[in-house]
Amino acid sequence: MNEKMARALELFEKLKNVEAIATDLDGTLTENRQGYRIPVEVIEGMSLLRKAGVKIFFVSANSFPIVYGLARYLGADGAVAENGCFVSTFEGGTKRPYIVEPCKDAPRDVAKLIAERLPNLVRESWQNEFRKHDFALELIGGAHNAKDTIKEIKRILSDEGLFERIELNYSGYAVHISPKGAGKLAGLKYLLSMQGINISRVAGIGDSAMDWDFIRETGIKVAVSNADEELREKSDIITDYESGFGFAQLCKAIAEAKLVKDQR
């Protein structure tokens, strides 16, 4: 057996034993990395997972109301929002979610400071009004100016001595200012502990280099085909299709692998 075939069989065995999928939202469930529409293939894929007994967790930097609303209406089993600062599960079909806030600090003042210092480069996201711990700054010049803008933000944070207090990340959509110690992985681990699921039995999928934070410890690491190169290079699987269509492909692969397992 050659190395490539052995690797394929290894991944198939892991797919058969997947208990949950942890997925980013923007760029991973949407049609592409520029828009916000969720294709019907994503909903169909999630339906396949539910029928196969696989739990679905949304892991996002978005504000809690947005992540919670999507998770509730699309039928996910739990959600991580604001880069791990909100964790929620939906138990027993109850309408009211169980919510935990692992983060304590709220660096709203830091986001405001940067927006005031760099008015021509960034602006506060409209979601910040609904955020409590993680705050987003949109790039006025677009993604092509991200490198230089982040360099300026880091300069301000260094000058003000704020690096000891916050985490700085770029999602491809916005720059995120989070409390020290926050992260998608921390939030996912908290959620999995609540569900009694080992992270080695989780398939993690995303589109941004920032998603590696939570994908890196999952049992199967997946990047959609249009993901950042850094994420694609580190992943076990790269889907054949972009964004939500790649997510749907992974859902189908997991469901089919589970079916083979059940038939044996």
Beta-strand content estimate: 15-25%
CATH architecture of the largest domain: 3-Layer(aba) Sandwich
The major sheet is characterized as: 8 strands, mixed
CATH fold category name of the largest domain: Rossmann fold
Give the distance, in angstroms, between the N- and C-terminal Cα atoms.
23 Å
Give helix and strand order, one letter per element, not per position.
Answer: HEHEHEEEHEEHEEHEHEHEH
Overall mean pLDDT score?
Answer: 90
Radius of gyration: 19 Å
Which structural class matches the secondary elements? alpha/beta
Describe this structure in words.
The chain is of the alpha/beta class and 264 residues long. It is built from 9 helices and 12 strands. The protein has helices at residues 3-16, 40-51, 64-74, 108-117, 146-159, 184-195, 212-215, 229-234, 243-263; strands spanning 20-23, 55-59, 78-81, 86-89, 98-100, 122-124, 135-139, 166-170, 175-179, 202-206, 220-223, 237-238. The strands form 2 sheets. It has an 8-stranded mixed β-sheet, with helices on both faces.
Task: Supply database-style keywords.
single chain, 264 residues, alpha/beta, Rossmann fold, 8-stranded mixed sheet
Quick summary:
This protein is an alpha/beta fold.
Task: Break the fold down into its secondary structure elements and pairings.
Layout: H1 3-16, E1 20-23, H2 40-51, E2 55-59, H3 64-74, E3 78-81, E4 86-89, E5 98-100, H4 108-117, E6 122-124, E7 135-139, H5 146-159, E8 166-170, E9 175-179, H6 184-195, E10 202-206, H7 212-215, E11 220-223, H8 229-234, E12 237-238, H9 243-263
Parallel strand pairs: 1-2, 1-10, 2-3, 10-11, 11-12
Antiparallel strand pairs: 3-4, 4-5, 6-7, 7-9, 8-9
